[in-house]
User: What shape does this take?
Amino acid sequence: MKGEALKSTIKKGEKRQLALRWKVLLFVVLSVAGTAFVGLFHDGKPASVKPVQTKNFYINDYSHVYSEQTEAFLWEQGRKLAGQTSAQVVVAAVPDTGYESFGEYSRDMARRWALGDPQKANGVLILFSTGEKTQVRMEVGYGLRERLTQSVCDEILERWAKPAMQEGKWNQAALQTWVAVTKEVYTEYGREIPETLMTLPQADEIPGVEGDADADLVPAGSAMLPWLVLLVNFGIFWAAVLLLVLIGLFMKMIFRWNGWGSPGVNQGGAAWVSYGPHDYGGGGSVGNSGGGFGGNPSAG
Assistant: This one.
């Protein structure tokens, strides 16, 4: 009898060990698969980071493509334009826009920077994306929209920005586009166009500096280390699993309280009350945001 009891105990122990191994294996498989799945949507990189304006103000080089000559010219001429008209025409170059569309990124940047006179809404942002997908876009304040119409902006970008961009000449693209826009602004305010803008300036092209061009756009510590990304994704997956389990238990309790699934109780669910649906009007847009900026379609 003792021998049989011992054998039975051993068998039960082996079954428990086998069951435990299967549970551990299932946990590992689910963890790997779940972490990988979450990683498809979360890689630890910020969706997009809007840069603050640099000390040069009128030219903001986050791609490291502009020469000192280009920066000096736009800084000096930008100050002159603002002094005579209160308008501000600003150039910026970024390596990419993260997961945000170029149009959304550009509009948000213009609103954040609040270029030009706040009362006149006469700022212009010329934004270049110099990464794998090269793009250019102009954001024009409402105070200048009658002069810098969509057709005018399209023509400027097609004529002055696009050809230079296709050749990788970012200094030329910035200078020529800025000068063309600035001439329109001077004309709008009835001011004489300076002699320095009558002849298109020339600038040497310089390569981007070595290193991660995105570094200037990402605040310190915001980009996660690879191991930390895996840990966070692991936590997100199991938190989601736990949430689903809790929801299931809660719903089970609700059904029981209201007579669903319990023997001897009316299955009609008479205690249930409908709360909805409610129409929240999704999809509408909110206007008047961002100091009167409106974007023109990009070229390139």
Summary: The domain at 59-217 is CATH 3.10.310.50 (Diaminopimelate Epimerase; Chain A, domain 1).
